[in-house]
Amino acid sequence: MLGGAIGLERELAGKSAGLRTNILICIGAALFTELSRDVARVGFTRDGRPYGGPGRIAAQVIAGVGFLGAGAIVHGGGAIVGLTTAATIWAVAAVGMAVGAGAYVDAVGSTALIVVVLVGLRPLEAALLRKRRRVRATVRVKRGVSFEIVDTVIKDLGIHVSDNRTYEHHSDRTFELSLLGPSNQFDVLCEHLRKLPEVVSITTD
């Protein structure tokens, strides 16, 4: 139920790791944690200590879920997608481990907090993203001019270069850039770059 509550939000958001995925992750983590405790009680030494450590199997859940979450992360076109889904998978596994360990209050409280983060903070995240935008820019400079001259101006204005491709031509050098930053800074960037004697032209889309 706890894994499903988180998975339902992911399903409604159209994410790859949705309802069934999160339920299965939560069930698996809970089962592994419970097995880890049970296996540790199978045998005892002469002084009463268990042969096995109760955290051995459960510890592998963290590493295993990490690989599962990494598969949800996609990098392409200068952007990284799937980080929230990967983090959710990791958190759902933690909820399942809490259930398996009998920490029901922690499990329920964590589930509520995760759902609040995924649903309640979405409008705030959208508002922040509206203030930032991605722009493709083509900057032509004189032949032999290094990218550092352009990069310094870009960074000083708080804009991030997510992708940079350089093309050499007979008479000049061209930088194809993917930029991410505050919307109101791009016009300022163009003005600053046009003032540089090394810059021949700049276009954005």
List the defining traits of the structure above.
205 residues, elongated, two-stranded antiparallel ribbon, single chain, 6 strands, Alpha-Beta Plaits, 4-stranded antiparallel sheet, 8 helices, 21% strand, alpha+beta
The order of strands across the largest sheet is: 4-5-3-6
Stretches where pLDDT falls below 50 for ≥5 residues? Answer: none
How much helix, percentage-wise, in residues? 40-55%
Strand proportion, as a percent range, falls in 15-25%
Domain count: the total is 2
Give an account of the 3D structure.
With 205 residues, this protein is of the alpha+beta class. The protein has 2 domains: 2-127, no CATH class; 131-204, ACT domain (Alpha-Beta Plaits). The chain is built from 8 helices and 6 strands; from the N terminus they run αααββαααβαββαβ. It has helices at 2-12, 19-40, 56-70, 83-100, 104-120, 122-130, 147-156, 185-194; strands at 74-76, 79-81, 132-142, 160-168, 172-182, 199-204. The relative contact order is 0.12. The model has no long low-confidence stretch (mean pLDDT 81).
Write a concise synopsis of the structure shown.
By secondary structure, this protein is α+β, with helices and mostly antiparallel strands.
Produce the secondary structure layout.
Blueprint: H1 2-12, H2 19-40, H3 56-70, E1 74-76, E2 79-81, H4 83-100, H5 104-120, H6 122-130, E3 132-142, H7 147-156, E4 160-168, E5 172-182, H8 185-194, E6 199-204
Antiparallel strand pairs: 1-2, 3-5, 3-6, 4-5
Helix pairs in contact: 1-2, 1-4, 1-5, 2-3, 2-4, 3-4, 4-5
